[in-house]
Design a protein that fits this description.
Arc Repressor Mutant, subunit A, elongated, mainly alpha, 3-stranded antiparallel beta sheet, 2 domains
Amino acid sequence: MLKNTGFVPIGKTGVFGLKKWETEIDDFKGGTIRDIAEEFLEGQAEPKHIDEIAEFVNNYRNTTPKNIYANLNMDDSKRFVFFRGSLIGLSAKKYSPEKYGKAIDRNIERKTWEERFSDLQKFAVENNGLPKSNSNDKELVLYRFMNIQLNKSAKNQMDHEKASRINDLVKKYKNLTQEH
């Protein structure tokens, strides 16, 4: 169907619409969320906040800024460039580094579960307690990791041995953290 110029894909689900609907129906646009976001950003001189992008995309798709951000971030073609403050632009455009800062490197190597758990253990020992959500960035990252793992454990969505390790660590330091 992609070879037939009378059709346009609607997302990546194998659903198609008629190309002529794009001009006949106000709230119809073919393509993926990425395509729609790219079209919006092509018409902008500066990077735009994810909420502004979402406002445009939601004219054609029902989704959230968080989902759009994740979707654009997973784009292997590297069409999008990300800046601090949830600003997104197109890699084909040049933006002022003085105004927006350096683009965020999306290819940062992620730590393994073991490395993150080790960081959490080290934090707990050094601070005699668990990380909190209202602290510095490094502690916030550990706090989020810990909570995600606890939620996965509660829903039986993770390896039993890992679940046991995270739960044991939290039990050991939970009361100490609450006293502070």
